Amino acid sequence: MYKLKKLESGVCAANGFYADGVSAGLKSGNAKDMAFIYSSTECEIASVFTTNKMTAAPIRHFRDKGDFKTNFILINSKNANAMTGPAGIVDIDEILQTLSATVKNPVMSSTGVIGVRLPKEKIIEGAKLFDLKKREPNSAAQAIMTTDSFSKEIAFEVTLEDGSSFRIGAMAKGAGMINPAMATMLCFITTDAKVTKEEMQEILDDATLRTFNAASVDGDTSTNDTVMLLANASSGVYDRAAFRDALEKIMRFLAREMVRDGEGASKLVTYKITGAKDDKEAEVVAKSLSNSLLVKTALYGEDPNWGRIASTVGASGVDADEKTLSISFNDLCVYNKGELLFDKKMEEAASEVMKLSEFNISCDLGLGDGKFTSFGCDLGYEYVKINADYRT
Amino acid sequence: MYKLKKLESGVCAANGFYADGVSAGLKSGNAKDMAFIYSSTECEIASVFTTNKMTAAPIRHFRDKGDFKTNFILINSKNANAMTGPAGIVDIDEILQTLSATVKNPVMSSTGVIGVRLPKEKIIEGAKLFDLKKREPNSAAQAIMTTDSFSKEIAFEVTLEDGSSFRIGAMAKGAGMINPAMATMLCFITTDAKVTKEEMQEILDDATLRTFNAASVDGDTSTNDTVMLLANASSGVYDRAAFRDALEKIMRFLAREMVRDGEGASKLVTYKITGAKDDKEAEVVAKSLSNSLLVKTALYGEDPNWGRIASTVGASGVDADEKTLSISFNDLCVYNKGELLFDKKMEEAASEVMKLSEFNISCDLGLGDGKFTSFGCDLGYEYVKINADYRT
Predict the structure, then answer these.
(1) Overall number of domains in chain B
(2) What is the CATH number of the domain that holds A325?
(3) Do A305 and A256 belong together in one domain?
(4) Residue B315 and residue A85: Cβ atoms within 8 Å?
(5) Do A88 and A64 contact (CB within 8 A), yes or no?
(6) Nearest neighbour of A114 by CB, restricted to B82, B308, B338
(7) Which residues of B touch A313 (CB under 8 A)?
(8) Of A70, B210, B329, B363, which is the most buried if we count CB atoms within 10 A?
(9) pTM across the whole model
(10) Test mutation, B50, B297, B367, chain A, max A CBs within 10 A
(11) Are residues B289 and B158 in the same domain?
């Protein structure tokens, strides 16, 4: 057995990791817009990237380098360096070149507006402000925010039965363009566990399916989505089950935080799908619900419109039948295998559930053992406001 | 050759067709909520229905009857008779039974709220108000509206080279839940052309792909979507090419009208996709764009955010490459195969296009000959308002 203990020190929780954020003038009003993560020793890297074909330059740059270790990540917000062609790659090379005396194989990651060249000079000047001895994880977490309304961090200390321990810490950004296929999200995870590259990649891929890939704000998938896990092995300790559990908890927490911070969102809804023909069909239903505009606006209106839920299940393309379907809001079953339960009294009870800031919508399809859980939010006026004129 | 002449008489344009709308108290304030279409002679029927698995009772009822002719359609708004199980079928039987003395094999069609039993008595009383000698196509078109802000009708007289002619008329409702896989839409088309059932079904199926199935308001697909084409052959005239052309023009007009009337929509945007690997991939891109929340909110904000368009193309899953992609707003090319054209001056010009109530967004993927055109709208505060509390 092992114990997990929550720590406050985010991406600096693990031994040997440093981080901070600075203002390079990319955002207005001296807001922090550049962050670094530094490890005193080199790290193995595991990563998951967007499936978007218009892959942003930083991701292409990372992939082009093949297999390597690093001790430094440079992150900027406000500009995604996407759709910038070969020039976008050259810009990264020139920026990272200025760091080559102090760090090993630095990696760059960007988020923000698409289709504008990086303000290279500002970023090079900004990087000169970095102090690699700083441990300011929240400052780093704030610097990578775009439309986020709060920063997102978490860390665990994992203590094994023999008393030895390792740590995992993380920060993420993301509040929109978050879709079951990754998100406009960046997530950086650091650990001092003594894990191999292959094993942490396998665990990261698997956990992504049930965490970041199960979270949706608006169904869009960005050019820059990145999850990066750095391991410097400095604790000398590792246990697969414990690492896996802690990592997935961290990723689930951050995925839920992103949805909770969904642009204009006021509710975090967990869609629990069971009884589908198989897990894949359950996943299709769960993601259809968390992406449906009609469901999302009904959530915003706190309207227990279970008919839209049924219709969305039916429209998702999987095997479904109104005679075997049941639908619940938390523990309140509002439709049961063809039985119209929804009277005035139940509507009042269901409306009370809808007023909560967090609740579950469960659909049992009654056809098999397939199950999947996704996370979604409502869509209200604020979403429109935030997205109608994002660039200005 | 043949000539098309536009007529004002909607669903009553073709010889022998009658229609009207009445108020049965389903909607509040004496608004019309029931309509009929009657033909003095029996009609062959072609139809296209929703792919939603939670198929509404009227569609199941129609299908269960197998092959038949009819001279009467009864349509109600405000209640969809969906998720109502076997009781929903019994309700239809009882309602139609009351009409059996006056009409032949009557068909029922419904639209409105899901998961509530039909107010059967009100509908039976309402049907007694029908006067089968009435030709009030606009009254019928108004009675089938739900969230529509205007009624949708069109008709053509088709004159062949020898001077003989036939007519096609139609009405439709639909303003939301309209998706590339049909829509919460009802469309009734009447014709006096002498066309066989098989031929008109084939032409209807084919035209649906490029018209109703290319229109999107919010990406949702309803339980009740129905396109029904009735032919009473009373003109004795038919020409395949002319019929096909007129029918597709009618369907495209109505599909565009539905998008123009999209809940809260202020812009009708045509997405012209070319250069995809094949037509299917072009269709995926076109529909991804017309369904993207980020694109739709950018349209609402009149923000020429071509980066979101590129990102959505990339996220659609088809073959795409920033080095071969180009994007235009009307005739203004804003991104050309890796070339960042977008400066201050172009932004101003692009913003002018975005202010129009109708414009094209063209994407050439530069990879092949595949093409597809879809219709979409913006998404603004009104959409949220309309959908946050639809049932009340």
Answers:
(1) 2
(2) 3.10.20.340
(3) no
(4) no
(5) no
(6) B308
(7) 53-54
(8) B363
(9) 0.84
(10) B297
(11) no
Nearest residue of chain B to residue A310 (CA atoms): B54
Minimal Cα distance from B301: which residue of A?
A: A388
Express each pLDDT in A249-291 by its tens digit: 999 999 989 888 877 788 899 999 999 999 999 999 999 998 8
Instruction: Report yes or no: B238 and B2 within 8 Å, Cβ to Cβ.
Output: no
The 3-class SS string of chain B reads CEEEEEECCHHHCCCCEEEEEECCCCCCCCCCCEEEEEEEEEEEEEEEECCCCCCCHHHHHHHHCCCCCEEEEEEECCECCCCCHHHHHHHHHHHHHCCCCCCCCCEEEEECECCCCCCHHHHHHHHCCCCCCCECHHHHHHHCCCCCCCCEEEEEEEEECCCCEEEEEEEEECCCCEECCEECCEEEEEECCCCCHHHHHHHHHHHHHHCHHHECCCCCCCCCCEEEEEECCCCCCCCHHHHHHHHHHHHHHHHHHHHHCCCCCCCEEEEEEEEECCHHHHHHHHHHHHHCHHHHHHHHCCCCCHHHHHHHHHHCCCCCCCCCCEEEECCEEEEECCEECCCHHHHHHHHHHHCCCEEEEEEECCCCCEEEEEEEECCCHHHHHHHHCCCC
Question: Does B354 share its domain with B207?
Answer: no
Do A62 and A136 fall within a single domain?
yes
Residue that is last in its domain, among A234, A260, A286: A260
Q: Domain check: are A166 and A227 in the same one? A: yes
Q: Which domain holds residue B324?
A: 268-388
- By three-state DSSP, how is residue A141 classified? helix
Strand partners for B336: B326, B339
Residue A92 in 3-state DSSP? helix
Give the residue from B213, B243, B260 where a domain finishes.
Answer: B260
Same structural domain, B137 and B212: yes
CATH number at residue B88: 3.60.70.12
Indicate whether B89 and B235 sit together in one domain: yes
pLDDT digits (tens, 9 = 90+) for B33-71: 999 999 999 999 999 998 888 999 999 999 999 999 999
Q: What mean pLDDT value characterizes chain A?
A: 92
Q: Are residues A47 and A140 in the same domain?
A: yes
Beta carbons of A387 and B301 less than 8 Å apart:
yes
Q: What is the ipTM of this complex?
A: 0.82
- Which residues of A carry out catalysis? 184
Quickly tell me which residue has 């002449």 as its tokens.
B5
